Amino acid sequence: MRGRGSLCQYSQPLFFFIETNPEFNRYDVIDRVIKTLNKLFVKGYEAYFIIDKGMTVELIRCRNGFSSKALIMGISAYLVQSLYALNNCSTIVLLSEEGDYELGKLFDSDCFLLGLHSDIDKSLIQIIESTNKIIKVRLSEIPYMTSQCIYIIEYILNNLV
């Protein structure tokens, strides 16, 4: 477990944004999230946007402001790389409206899992839980947009003692 306020000082946070709605076409949401990450995590971050399109998976990897995109049919090295990054997280903080309202749990990991535009499918969470410890955290009684969650995470990790 890290000490309070150490996220941006000592390590780069790892974000996973998952969208399981095959009709998703709100790339403005992805753009807003990337702009927010670039603004708040100037010392570096890595983010994976995994968008389930039914028969294909769209994967966008963004690292310190530079992004690459792949459309995947089946398993590819690119998708395996993103899942490998997820498996490198011993503990993952899942931001969920069903989580516990204990903001101190944000300090338990550098890995964060969020729904991009809609909630993450429960069966996908179960798959991730089979290989990783997941801590479910609720930021508030109010549902927030993903980009707003990033602001809250950054503020809590860098300003609360």
Per DSSP E runs of 2 or more residues, the count of β-strands stands at 7
CATH homologous superfamily assignment: SPOUT methyltransferase, trefoil knot domain
What's the N-to-C terminus distance? 15 Å
CATH fold-level assignment: Alpha/beta knot
Order of helices and strands: HEHEEEHEEHEH
Count up the domains: 1
Q: Main sheet?
A: 7 strands, mixed
Strand arrangement across the biggest beta sheet: 4-3-2-1-6-5-7
Structure classification = alpha/beta
DSSP helical segment count: 5
Q: In CATH's first tier, which class applies?
A: Alpha Beta
Instruction: Label the overall shape.
Output: globular
Provide an overview of this structure:
Strands 4-3-2-1-6-5-7 form a seven-stranded mixed β-sheet, with helices on one face. The chain has five helices and seven strands; from the N terminus they run αβαβββαββαβα. The model is unreliable at 1-10 (pLDDT under 50). Helix content is 32%, strand content 29%. A hairpin with a 2-residue loop joins strand 3 and strand 4. The protein is globular. It has one domain (7-159): Alpha/beta knot, CATH 3.40.1280.10. With 161 residues, it is of the alpha/beta class. The longest helix is centred in the first third of the chain and has 14 residues, at 27-40.
For this entry, give a set of tags:
161 residues; Alpha/beta knot; 7 strands; disordered N terminus
